[in-house]
Amino acid sequence: VRAAEPGYLARLNPEQRLAVETTEGPVLVLAGAGTGKTRVLTTRIAHLLATQKAWPSQILAVTFTNKAAREMRHRIGELIGQSVEGMSWLGTFHSIGVRILRRHAELVGLKPNFTILDTDDQIRLMKQVIQAENLDEKRWPARQLAILIDGWKNRGLTPKDVPPGEGGAFANGRGVALYALYQERLKVLNACDFGDLLLENLRLFREQPDVLRDYHERFRYILVDEYQDTNVAQYLWLRLLAQGRKNVCCVGDDDQSIYGWRGAEVDNILRFEKDFPGATVIRLERNYRSTSHILAAASHLIAHNESRLGKTLFTEHADPEAPKVTVASSWDQDEEARAIGEEIEQLQKRGQKLDEMAILVRASFQMRAFEDRFITLGLPYRVIGGPRFYERQEIRDALAYFRVVVQPADDLAFERIVNVPKRGIGETSFKLIAEHGRRRQIPLTLAADELLQTEEIKAKARTALSGLVAALGRWSAAAETMKHTELAEMILEESGYTEMWQQDRSADAPGRLENLKELVRSMEEFESLPAFLEHIALVMDRDGAEGTDAVSIMTLHSAKGLEFETVFLPGWEEGLFPHQRALDESGRAGLEEERRLAYVGITRAKKRALIWFASNRRIHGLWQSTVPSRFLDELPEAHVDVVEQTSSYGGYNVGGIGNYGASRFDRADPFQNSYSTPGWQRAQSNRGGPKPAPRSSVRLIEGELIAKSTGSRSAYSVGDRVFHDKFGYGDVAAIEGNKLTIDFDKAGQKKVVDSFVTAA
Ligand code: ATP
Ligand code: MG
Q: Which residue, among 114, 127, 259, 125, has the nearest Cα to 200 in the 3D structure?
């Protein structure tokens, strides 16, 4: 008698079911978007548990993000009808790597409580190594070394594995030696950088066969989602673990490989069949997610890539009413945000939930226009995979600079920027300033200025602080006459803040620089710096949209694996998408990766995909006409509706729209819309609403500061015997306001402020 079949199997097609039930031996599922790869993995885990082939702790399951891991855990619970406890090995490569490393830290020369360095520390440490070797730091910058070392780590290479001659261009062939020294320093500090997490795992497994054998014993089944985005180190790690029982199931889609820039290798898909001979390779061809229009648009687009394994996809979503993919244009990014906002409100009126809508951008700076618009509309939104635009670190830092300039009494802002970028005003110096400010009940900027006239703060920090205070004064004065956007640029430039990110070699640094530019751009709509800051204060005050029905805003990269009823894809313009950087750095390969990103974007949609491009983008106060993305020409006419847009600002028409043919979107003529039209002038004067009155502000002008600080009187007289925390006992030799010149018994004559002195 056959036992009743579990319900979860009945909800699979035959190929999916094969992938779930082939529990023993290697399995590779290679299939397009929306074909149920993730569903297969989830069901496979449920199946292993339900049939008692493994305990939860015996299953190693790797997902791409922590969020995906949480979701998978939740789904498995739903499938087997009870919550799953003890699936402690479900997570990302890194989270699992850390866990393993902490358990065996001693075996690789670390203590279990090792720290994981952030990029900042990593660079600083490399700098030290470079200096210690008496190399010219300018000629051989640390961030270049970091790229080299990260590259090796992504490939699973320890210093002694690096092939001879590689990295020879760096420091006259000393790249590998520096790598080795850097690793030694890490050990001394009991620290790891991100790349080490897997690399040290690899070393552990190779050098300690017993440990590896333990894990072979433990992990009866291994599963990997988004396999196409693994790098070599991750692949080697998997292979070592999987070679025990060989029950490894990887699912992926070569067309969705979008992390090549971080070292991912699609070749891992091909290697799998070689390294695991006899692997069952399963292809899934039925897409369950999207309508036939969406699927056709995505498939047609991706067919323009040369390097792909190739596959067919079909859907049985035969809804004759289903809308085609639409392509619409707008005048600029603000109008794009306005139009998409309207569209969202329309859909909402027709009963669609905001949770089922997403805006997928190529670059995070694009989010700003949407966030501003949605706040105006009162439309709840959430930003996935990163903070909201104005909450980003670089934006908060920049805003803090602006705040101190507009309002020197803004202590929180001052605290934030006083040593960002690092200028040698450390904790000790800051504490002195804060303490003095508190005692005197004056703002930190004033306190700093007062201390500068004394020797309380160490000479090096004093020089840096005096530079900063002088600059703040200069910017404050310039605010009276200069255009606020230019001032903002000047501040970011002169403070060294922009340069800090230019020097940063982490993968997100270029994005941060773009965000800073977008910040300055967004200020153009406001009358003045204070008016702009007022707007920001209101924006920041908003609660997050947790738990409520809300539109999602995220980058295409973080949309991987997700799905929504309606997907908005703004900014399909040459240079932005495909992104210029990808084209410049990786040529054809870069273009193909961008196209895969477009494929990922379109295939997130179940019912509706709406693509947009703006005819103009304003960069540094100048209108620049844009060229529609080449990807638009690669969409199949039969499945696309091109929406003729009538502007709400004077009825311009975007050139080329509706002219089907080779250059339907007139990429050929980039100057089509470069003339200023009455349209945009009106748009501009419409903006902003009533102008907020400029805030009255304390201007940080030197004369004024000095006037203030000399205004107060000291409680001491010449000849008084006093005690100072740092310099010890001494006699007051002269008094000027609250500054005392003291002949210290040991430290000699020094100028100090009276608040740090007590009567002896
Ligand atoms: P991606 O490549 O985008 O990660 P995927 O291949 O992982 O996609 P899933 O997210 O697993 O695809 O599935 C896409 C959608 O199709 C989900 O909503 C899933 O529930 C549904 N689905 C998958 N298989 C089936 C099936 N056999 N019957 C009904 N719905 C299914
Ligand atoms: Mg998936």
A: 114
Residues designated catalytic? 37-38, 225-226, 256, 604
What is the Å distance from ligand 1's center to 223 Cα?
A: 17
Measured from the alpha carbon of residue 36, the closest ligand is: 1
One-letter amino acid identity for 189?
L
Assembly ipTM: 0.99
From CA 567, how far away is CA 85, in angstroms rounded?
Answer: 35
* CA dihedral angle for residue 196, residue 202, residue 207, residue 209, rounded to 10 degrees: 140
pLDDT in tens, 677-701: 222 222 333 333 333 333 333 333 3
The angle formed by the CA atoms of residues 597, 600 and 605, to the nearest 5 degrees, is: 140
pLDDT of 707 above 60: no
Over residues 5-16, the pLDDT tens digits come to: 778 898 999 999
- 529, 479 in Cβ contact below 8 A? yes
Q: Which residues hold their Cβ within 5 A of ligand 2, which is an ion?
A: 37-38, 561
CA of 21 to the centre of ligand 1 (A): 17
Strands of the sheet with 739-744, listed across from one edge: 748-753, 739-744, 728-736, 721-724, 757-759
Phi then psi dihedrals of residue 137, to 5 deg: -60, -30
Which residue(s) pair with 90 in the sheet? 61
Q: Which atom of ligand 1 is nearest to the CA of 600?
A: 3
Task: Note the pTM of the prediction, 2 decimals.
Answer: 0.75
Helix-, strand-, coil-residue percentages of the chain, each rounded to 5: 50, 15, 35
